[in-house]
Specification:
There is one protein chain. This protein is an alpha+beta fold and about 300 residues long. The chain has one domain. About 40% of the residues lie in helices and about 10% in strands. The chain has eight helices and eight strands. It is globular. It starts with 9 loop residues before the first strand and ends in a 17-residue tail after the last helix.
Length: about 300
């Protein structure tokens, strides 16, 4: 997608595996620059197709191991989520994604993003943090530029960090002809990146990324960042589940899709193996607390 300054970091979910990582431009030691570029533009791997058995969505609606290294662990030592408690149960009935064969994707996402705003604003207020809702932009088709930068190649949904903007194209495998939970999980994941910006996690991540002296460590830091967003998505799903007309099969399908989006199918490692993406999504869902999403102190095996 061309050159990208770290301050304009875009965090996308890609439709298909990229041929090679995009480049970035920012001041880093020469040894670190290339890998940091890959970590700065965090990409996911092959997006699973809509499952044939997805339930219809209608208006009725701890580990004992030490961290792999102290540098990664030091990224968020003062965890801003540490003592904020559980995310309160949310009332978020899903509107239909398709009505009479007509897609209602934008309406669906706007409704669920409103619920995300309500849930997380209340949670951050409890810990005395200032909340600011993200800007949200929808596009019928990809355009030449977004957030002042070239549209990321093959991007499904993404978050522009400097403008705190969520971007959702209304086309592509991630959202077209779907009635399963995957679009909501994608939206909640990207929203997780917004929370990382609001709480200072992104700033600490970028600082540690600049200090990292090896490509392997930079890649690991990027995966810790992305897997935390997966976990935060799980926290929201856990808080909202009781108000959604979903079944255990819907949840199982989402876990299968999440596993299929792991790095095993990617050109480079950015979001973690499928099993680890599932682990962090489930951890957030079951704990319903963002404190459960401390990927920064997790052992290397859990962020591989």
């Amino acid at each position: 997608m061309g050159r990208l300054p770290l301050g304009s970091l875009i965090v996308p979910l890609l439709r298909f595996r990229p041929a090679s990582p995009p480049r970035a431009r920012f001041a880093l030691p020469a040894v670190a620059a290339t890998a940091a570029a890959a970590a700065a533009v965090c990409v996911a791997t092959a997006l699973p197709a809509a499952p044939a058995h997805a339930a219809a969505n209608t208006s009725a609606n701890t580990n004992a191991n030490a961290p792999a290294n102290t540098t990664a662990n030091a990224t968020v030592r003062a965890d801003p989520f540490a003592r904020t408690g559980k995310l309160a149960a949310a009332t978020c009935p899903e509107p239909p994604m398709i009505t009479g064969g007509v897609p209602r994707t934008e309406s669906y996402l706007r409704t669920m993003l409103k619920c995300l705003n309500t849930s997380w604003s209340r949670h951050l207020a409890k810990s005395g943090r200032t909340f600011r809702a993200p800007v949200v932009e929808f596009y019928d088709e990809p355009v030449r530029e977004v957030c002042g930068l070239p549209w990321p190649a093959q991007a499904a949904a993404f978050y522009c960090t400097d403008r705190r903007t969520l971007v959702f194209p209304l086309t592509g495998d991630w959202v077209e002809n779907r009635t399963d939970l995957y679009p909501l999980k994608v939206a909640a994941h990207e929203y997780g990146h917004h929370l990382q910006s609001l709480t200072g996690i992104r700033r600490a991540f970028e600082s540690r990324l600049r200090a990292a002296r090896s490509r392997a460590l930079q890649s690991e830091l990027g995966r810790r960042y992305e897997l935390q967003a997966d976990c935060l998505a799980g926290v929201f799903l856990g808080a909202a589940w009781g108000s959604m007309s979903r079944t255990g099969q819907d949840w199982t399908t989402l876990l299968d899709e999440t596993k299929d989006s792991g790095d095993e199918y990617a050109a480079y490692r950015s979001h973690g193996k499928g099993a680890n993406r599932v682990h962090w999504l489930k951890r957030g869902y079951q704990g319903r607390s963002p404190a459960a999403c401390d990927t920064w102190s997790a052992p290397a095996a859990k962020v591989a």
